[in-house]
């Protein structure tokens, strides 16, 4: 099995305040996160990850959170330099950092650009002040505009805006207004996704009583997809839209095409392909435990190898998100399995109208399959 492209994910876990819908490994620290101590642990972690995939260049780096922009540009410059000292990066590798609007959370886009970041992902979520309040966001609509303008002034021709729909009390008109406001800031990329009530969140235990129902959410989705197309944003993944193919998120595309990715930081997940097979691993989720582990030198990351049914399911779980679909050749290359091992479930899903063969050996979800993507993905469960 040929080694697939390799990316690196680095997790910076702190936020000023945790949002009630968020199920990511994020922790409230205000502006008092133990940054210096955590950076030392990250660099020690990088040493381990460099040994996990020797002589394999990185196609992308993603600094996620949490709110990575709580770390000032000088800290980010240290981390980017540490990555470059340990890994070869392909020419023009995509290096993304998540940032939230607001003075505290995204204070210096130009500084991040100088530090080595070449793509920003800004968490706008909504351009409606009332909805931002319901979501527990601490930034204003004006903060979003300022963040986008400062990003562009700093030289970020490639930045993303995150926008959500299906929000408490949101109707179709309000959802489309959010998209128009986002497009007016001319981001190269828009991530537009539905609010979901994830376990272990405040919204899951105490759901808002005015969420749009499934039919209203689907109406918003289809109308929004049409509007984004007219605004010049082509959909290439279930929740991703770009002004051109060159602005598609290369890091996320590596996920969806079942590429490899190294994991650095508290709770970070990794996937690695070796001669022994395909393995997954995860770092300690609690930031304090994570730092103590590296300080004590007791790092033992267990790699769990995927069996054949798990490889099939995980490939399809990701690849079915791509609106253009996938080739059976890619399945074979990324899983090391034969196309025949997949064919039976493909044909069964085809009979149900959930998937279609576009051309010889190239498959994609139908419109029905995209609407009921969870059902289509479950067809490939082990």
Please characterize this protein's 3D structure.
- The protein folds into 2 domains: 6-255, Aldolase class I (TIM Barrel), CATH 3.20.20.70; 308-382, Winged helix-like DNA-binding domain superfamily/Winged helix DNA-binding domain (Arc Repressor Mutant, subunit A, Orthogonal Bundle), CATH 1.10.10.10.
- The protein is built from 15 helices and 17 strands.
- It has helices spanning 35-52, 73-86, 109-115, 129-134, 141-153, 172-184, 202-205, 214-230, 250-256, 287-296, 308-319, 328-335, 340-351, 367-371, 373-378, and strands spanning 6-12, 14-15, 27-28, 58-65, 89-99, 119-125, 159-165, 189-194, 234-237, 240-242, 260-264, 269-274, 277-282, 304-305, 326-327, 355-359, 362-365.
- The strands form 4 sheets. It has a 9-stranded mixed beta sheet with strand order 9-10-8-7-6-5-4-1-11, with helices on both faces. A 3-stranded antiparallel beta sheet has the order 12-13-14, with no helix packed on it. A 3-stranded antiparallel beta sheet has the order 15-17-16.
- A hairpin with a 2-residue loop joins strand 16 (355-359) and strand 17 (362-365).
- The longest helix is centred in the N-terminal third of the chain and has 18 residues, at 35-52.
- The two termini are 21 Å apart.
Query: pLDDT below 50 for ≥5 consecutive residues: which ranges?
Result: none
The neighbouring-strand order within the major sheet is 9-10-8-7-6-5-4-1-11
- Total helices: the number is 15
- By CATH, the topology of the largest domain is TIM Barrel
Under the CATH scheme, which architecture of the largest domain would be assigned? Alpha-Beta Barrel
What kind of assembly state do the chains in view correspond to?
A: single chain
Tell me, briefly, the overall form: globular
């Amino acid at each position: 099995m040929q080694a697939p492209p390799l990316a690196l994910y680095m997790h910076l876990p702190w936020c000023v305040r945790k949002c009630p819908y968020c199920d990511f490994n994020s922790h409230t620290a205000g502006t008092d996160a133990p940054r210096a101590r955590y950076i030392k642990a990250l660099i020690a972690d990088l040493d381990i990850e460099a040994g996990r995939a020797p002589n394999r260049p990185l196609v992308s780096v993603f600094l996620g959170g949490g709110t990575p922009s709580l770390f000032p540009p000088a800290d980010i410059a240290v981390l980017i330099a540490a990555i470059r000292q340990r890994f070869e990066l392909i020419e023009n590798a995509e290096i993304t950092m998540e940032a939230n609007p607001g003075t505290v959370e995204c204070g210096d886009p130009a500084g991040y650009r100088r530090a080595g970041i070449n793509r920003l992902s800004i968490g706008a979520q909504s351009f409606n002040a009332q909805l931002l309040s319901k979501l527990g966001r601490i930034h204003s609509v004006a903060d979003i505009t300022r963040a986008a303008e400062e990003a562009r002034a700093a030289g970020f021709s490639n930045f993303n805006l995150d926008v959500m729909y299906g929000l408490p009390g949101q109707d179709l008109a309000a959802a489309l207004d959010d998209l128009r406001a986002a497009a007016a800031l001319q981001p190269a990329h828009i991530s537009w996704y539905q609010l979901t009530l994830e376990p272990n969140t405040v919204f899951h235990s105490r759901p808002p009583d005015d969420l749009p129902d499934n039919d209203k959410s689907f109406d918003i989705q289809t109308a929004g997809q049409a509007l984004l197309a007219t605004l010049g944003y082509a959909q290439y993944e279930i929740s991703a839209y770009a002004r051109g193919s060159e602005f598609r998120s290369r890091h996320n595309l590596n996920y969806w095409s079942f590429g490899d990715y190294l994991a650095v930081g508290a709770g970070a997940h990794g996937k690695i392909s070796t001669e022994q097979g395909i393995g997954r691993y995860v770092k300690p989720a609690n930031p304090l435990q994570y730092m103590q582990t590296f300080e004590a030198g007791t790092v033992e990351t267990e790699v769990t190898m995927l069996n054949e049914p798990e490889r099939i399911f995980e490939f399809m779980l990701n690849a079915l998100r791509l609106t253009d679909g996938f080739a059976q050749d890619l399945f074979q290359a990324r899983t090391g399995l034969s196309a025949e091992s997949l064919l039976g479930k493909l044909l069964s899903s085809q009979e149900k109208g959930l998937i279609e063969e576009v051309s010889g050996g190239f498959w994609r979800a139908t419109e029905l399959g995209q609407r009921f993507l969870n059902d289509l993905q479950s067809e490939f469960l082990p």
